[in-house]
Q: What sequence folds into this?
DNA sequence: TTGATATTTTGGAATGATTCTAAATATTAC
DNA sequence: GTAATATTTAGAATCATTCCAAAATATCAA
C-alpha cells in the first residue's frame, strides 16, 4: 500500500516503457517491497500484500514480481535452492546470508572491489551482471 | 568409473574422516564428476553413472552428491533457481554463466581480488564462504 | 567365515516453490 | 461506452529434490 508519489511515478514510467499496464496489484506488490528494507520471499510478500488487499492471489504476486524484476525495479536474489527473495536495493551490491538466523544483509561494494571483480574476467567473457553472496555468521554487538 | 588411485585414496580418506563407508556408488559418482572438467547436473551425473553402473538409482546419485559435498570433495553450484550443478574444482574460484549457451566456466580469482572481497565485510560479519557468479555472453574466438 | 549391527541403496511416493491454464475481470484507446 | 487487449485468479501441473520403508551391503567382533 502507501506507495510514495516518487515510487508511484517510477513504477508507472517503468511499466509504460515496457508497454505494460499500471494495475492495483502491481502497485501493491511494489509498495510492499519498497516499504520495508528487507529481503522477503514471494510467500512473505503475499502475506503482507493480503493485509491490505485480501483478494490478491499468490499467482498474481508471482506475476507482479516477475514484471517488476523484468522492469528493473526490484532485484531477485537466490541463496542455494531456497525460495527466491526480492530486494528493493538497486545499487550494485552483495548479500550476506547468516547461517544461524537466516537473515540477509546488503553489503555495499567499493568501486575498487567492483573494478577488481570485472578485472578477473579473461578475454572473451562479456559480463552483464554479477552476483556475490557471502555465507557465515553475524556477531550480535 | 575409472577413478585414479589418488582420487580413490582421497575419497576413502574423506569418507573415513566423516565416519562414512566406501561404496561402489560413491566411487562411481565421484569418478563421474572427476573424469570431466565440467558442471553437470544431478540428472547428467545420473545418466553418465548409469552408463557403467546400470542399476544405480537417481536417489542414490542425490545421496552420494550430498555426501561428497559434505565431505568437501565436490562443490555444489547454483544459478538462480536452476537445477544444482556439481563442480570438481576445489580452488576458491568464481563461475561465468553464458546466457546464450547455458555453458558454465570456471573463473580464477587473483589473491588480490579475494582479499578485496573479504575487505568489503563490515565489523560483525564472519564469512565462512562466498559465491561469485558472473552472467553474460562469451565471444567465440 | 559368520553372524550381529549399522549404514547404504533403491523405487516410488511426497514435497514445495514456481509456472501454466483458461475463464473472469480490468485497463486502454477510440 | 465499447471493443480490443492485458491482467488477475484459482486451481492444476511441473519438476528438482527429499523422504520413506524395505532390501541389500559393509563393517566388526568373535
A:
Amino acid at each position: 500500500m502507501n506507495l510514495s508519489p516518487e515510487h508511484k511515478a517510477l513504477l508507472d514510467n517503468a511499466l509504460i516503457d515496457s508497454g505494460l499496464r499500471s494495475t492495483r496489484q502491481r502497485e501493491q506488490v511494489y509498495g510492499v517491497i519498497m516499504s520495508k528494507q528487507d529481503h522477503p520471499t514471494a510467500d512473505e510478500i503475499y502475506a503482507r500484500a493480503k493485509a491490505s488487499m485480501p483478494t490478491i492471489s499468490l499467482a498474481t504476486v508471482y506475476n507482479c514480481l516477475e514484471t517488476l524484476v523484468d522492469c528493473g525495479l526490484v532485484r531477485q536474489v537466490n541463496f542455494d535452492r531456497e525460495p527466491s527473495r526480492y530486494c528493493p536495493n538497486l545499487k550494485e551490491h552483495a548479500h550476506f546470508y547468516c547461517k544461524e538466523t537466516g537473515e540477509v544483509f546488503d553489503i555495499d561494494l567499493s568501486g575498487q572491489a567492483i573494478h577488481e571483480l570485472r578485472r578477473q574476467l579473461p578475454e572473451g567473457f562479456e559480463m552483464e551482471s554479477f552476483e556475490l553472496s557471502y555465507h557465515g555468521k553475524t556477531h550480535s554487538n
